[in-house]
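Translate sequence into structure tokens.
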Amino acid sequence: MSRRSTVWLRLCFCAVILSWLANAPHAQELEPRTYSPSPVGTNFLVLGYAHVSGDVLTDPSLPITGVSAQLNNLVLGYVRTFALANHTASIGVAVPFVSGDLSGVVIGAPTEVHRAGLGDVQFRFALNLIGTPALSPEAFARAPPATSLGASVTIQAPTGQYVPSRLVNVGNNRWAFKPEFGISQPWGNWFFEASAGVWLFTDNTSFFNGKDKSQAPLAVAQLHGGYSFRPGLWLAVDLGYALGGATQVNGGSSSASQANTRGGVTLAVPLGRGWSAKLAYSQGFVVRAGGNYRIVSFAIQYRWFDH
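Result follows.
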């Protein structure tokens, strides 16, 4: 095999890893109770950690095998609720730090990549359209549970660490937007939720020394069902689906589209006045393209009211 072919295959390996890093945050999210109502004037400060591990599916026609990933993701987030036209709204921000080790075998030669640095910051605005109106904490505590229908927009900004001369980066060097609708239905101590949205991506026009990298829309949907044992203590079963998201470089042939299903469980536990913890586990059930990975996450949250 020629040196040019060997170099090209190594670039393919890096491109596969890059696509995995770019798509993992969008496809792996399994977050119950994001559309559950809260009183206005509530503040949430969250520190979370997630360990992501597993294999990356590659094109079987390429001599690239054994691609695996180990990622550690630390996230600091803040969310605040407020009243908007007598509806409850919220705005939040999440700042990630990512450290990853990725490896594989290219033409019989082991290849490894390590990256660490700040990831792309995410902002989220959500509005409760139908359900409990904007209420103070005292009035909210007296209100009976009701069906809630909400909408949200998540924006991912190109703030992460990015070097154009590298094929593998922590940041994506592009904007991403996810409009979404969600519904939350209480039923006694049980709760059920569903959401559907789509990630839309701008192009990365500085991909590997000036190339243009584009990505097709990635549709995502989630279902959650859970039980509240007492206030703050609940357990949920989670199911997610991702479809699309194929990538192209300079308008060339596309990578495989995702059609991936994953599931998991989430446990929330109160720790004291205003404090709570959340432990979650998820894994892929059906993975057509991208990462077939397991995620274990843990988060500490502190909640307080304006008055």
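Note: The first strand starts at residue 42 and ends at 57.
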